[in-house]
UniProtKB/TrEMBL annotation:
This is Uncharacterized protein. It comes from the Eukaryota.
C-alpha cells in the first residue's frame, strides 16, 4: 500500500472528521471516493487538494482519477515525485508523463529502487538501446510491473531456442515489446508450431520474427488460422503457403477475406483474370492485396496503350505480378529502350514480362551492350535472369545453356514494392535458401 503523510497524530474522532471533510471535498469536484474507504488519507484537505491539482497539471482529468482513485493515496514526496523523476530520467518525456500515468497509474505505488530500476536493467540487458527505453515503456508501461524471472525471461528464452539471434531481441522489444508479456505455452509456442506446420522452417521463421516481431501478436485462433483457410479457399495451394507468409507476413493478420475479394473482382473486371490466375498472382506477390487499385491500374494502362492486347497483359500480370508495382516512369524508359535500341518484338515482353522489373541503367543496358560487342543473340530471360557472375560465365561459354524458369515466386531484378519489400533475382537456390533470402529482404 502507498505510504501516507500525516502531519499530526490524531485521535480516532479527529481522523473520522478529517476523512468526512476530505471525502466531501472529493465529491464536490466530481471524484467518487468509495474505493478509498480502506485507504489512509492525508490529515488535511489542503494535502489532498495538492495531490489532485498536481495530477491535473500533469494532464489527468477527474474522469482519469475516477478510473483509478487509489492514486490519491500516494504521497507526493515518497511516491509521486520520485517515480515521475525516474521516468523522466530514463527517457519518458515530461510532456507525456500524464499520459503514462493515465495508462499505468499503478506505477505510482512502485518503489524506484526495488521495482523500477531492475526492470530497466533487464531491458538494457536485452540490448534495448538506452535512448529507446522511454519509447518502449510508453508503448507498454505494464512492463514495469512484471517479475523478471517470470514471463519476460521465459519468452526471450523460447525465442532464442527456435533460432532468434540474441542480439536481435533488443530491436524486437523496441518494435513490439508486448511479446515480453505473452505466455509461451498458450500464445507464442502454439503460433510458432502452427506456422512451422505450414512448411515454414524454424530458422526462416526466426529471421521473420526478428524483422516483424508484431507477428507474435496475431491471434492464432481468431485471425491466423481463419486467414490461412481463407487463402486456401481462394485457390492458394497449400505447398505455397510458406512462401506466401515469408514474402508478406502481414497477410496472416489482415482482414483478409475482404481484401482478397476486392482485388479478385478488380483483376477479373479489368483483365478478365479468372480465380485460378488470381491465386497464382497472390502466390507470387501476396503484397498485391494491400496495393491501391489506382496504383495497380497505371502499369496496366501503360501496357494496353502500347497496343498489347488486354489478354496478353493479363498473361504478363499472372506470370509476373511485380509488374503492377513498377513505377510507370521506369517502365516507360525500359520499354522505349527495348523498342528503339534492342529492336525486339513486343511478343518477347509478353513471354518475359520480368524485363520491366530489372534496372535499365545497372543491368539491362550494360548487359545488352556486352552482347552487342560479342554479336550474341539470345532471349531476354537468358540475358537478364541470372547473377552477374553467371552472366559472365555465359558470355565466356561456347554454347547457350538451357534456360530454366526457376521458382515461380521469384521474379525479375531488385524491385522495391510499396511497404519496403524487396524482390531479388535468384540463381540455383534451395527452397530453404529462397525462403531465407525472402525473409531477410522483408
Amino acid at each position: 500500500m502507498p505510504s501516507v503523510t500525516w502531519g499530526v497524530v490524531q485521535g480516532r474522532k479527529e481522523k473520522l472528521v478529517s476523512r468526512v471533510i476530505i471525502c466531501d471535498y472529493l465529491k464536490g469536484i466530481g471524484i467518487v471516493p468509495d474505493e478509498l474507504e480502506d485507504l489512509e488519507l492525508p490529515s488535511t484537505v489542503e494535502v489532498m487538494r495538492e495531490r489532485v491539482e498536481f495530477l491535473q497539471k500533469l494532464g489527468l482529468t477527474i474522469d482519469d482519477i475516477n478510473e483509478y482513485p487509489l492514486m490519491l493515496g500516494c504521497s507526493m514526496r515518497k511516491n509521486v515525485i520520485p517515480v515521475l523523476g525516474y521516468l523522466e530520467k530514463i527517457g519518458v518525456q515530461r510532456s507525456r508523463l500524464g499520459e503514462f500515468i493515465k495508462n499505468y497509474p499503478q506505477v505510482l505505488h512502485a518503489s524506484v529502487v526495488v521495482e523500477l530500476v531492475p526492470v530497466v536493467k533487464f531491458l538494457r540487458g536485452l540490448d534495448v538501446e538506452k535512448q529507446d527505453i522511454g519509447y518502449v515503456l510508453m508503448k507498454y508501461p505494464e512492463l514495469l510491473g512484471f517479475k523478471l524471472e517470470g514471463t519476460m525471461s521465459t519468452s526471450v528464452a523460447y525465442l532464442v531456442s527456435i533460432g532468434v539471434n540474441p542480439r536481435d531481441i533488443g530491436p524486437m522489444v523496441t518494435q513490439y515489446p508486448y511479446f515480453l508479456g505473452m505466455r509461451v505455452g498458450t500464445m507464442i509456442k502454439p503460433l510458432v508450431d502452427f506456422l512451422v506446420s505450414l512448411g515454414l522452417p524454424k530458422k526462416i521463421l526466426a529471421r521473420l520474427l526478428e524483422k516483424r516481431a508484431y507477428v507474435l501478436g496475431y491471434d492464432l485462433e481468431e485471425t491466423v488460422k481463419p486467414n490461412v483457410e481463407c487463402l486456401i479457399s481462394f485457390g492458394i495451394r497449400r505447398e505455397t503457403l510458406a512462401s506466401v507468409i515469408a514474402q508478406y507476413p502481414q497477410i496472416i493478420g489482415l482482414p483478409l477475406k475482404a481484401k482478397l475479394s476486392t482485388q479478385q473482382y478488380f483483376f477479373n473486371l479489368k483483365l478478365k483474370i479468372e480465380p485460378e490466375g488470381f491465386a497464382r498472382i497472390i502466390e507470387r506477390m501476396p503484397q498485391l492485396i494491400s496495393l491501391n487499385q489506382n496504383v495497380l491500374m497505371k502499369p496496366i494502362e501503360f501496357l494496353i496503350a502500347r497496343a498489347i492486347p488486354s489478354e496478353d497483359v493479363a498473361k504478363m500480370v499472372v506470370k509476373c505480378p511485380q509488374l503492377v508495382a513498377v513505377p510507370v516512369g521506369l517502365m516507360k524508359n525500359s520499354y522505349y529502350f527495348f523498342k528503339s535500341e534492342m529492336g525486339r518484338p513486343v511478343k518477347e515482353l509478353v513471354q518475359f514480362p520480368e524485363y520491366f522489373t530489372y534496372s535499365l541503367e545497372s543491368r539491362i543496358k550494360p548487359r545488352y551492350q556486352r552482347l552487342q560487342s560479342k554479336g550474341i543473340r539470345c532471349s531476354l530471360a537468358w540475358l537478364l535472369n541470372c547473377s552477374d557472375q553467371r552472366f559472365e560465365e555465359r558470355l565466356q561459354a561456347d554454347y547457350i545453356e538451357t534456360e530454366s524458369a526457376g521458382p515461380s515466386f521469384i521474379m525479375g531484378g531488385k524491385l522495391e514494392l510499396p511497404g519496403g519489400e524487396i524482390m531479388s533475382d535468384v540463381d540455383e537456390e534451395s527452397d530453404d535458401e529462397i525462403l531465407y533470402r525472402h525473409t531477410v529482404s522483408l
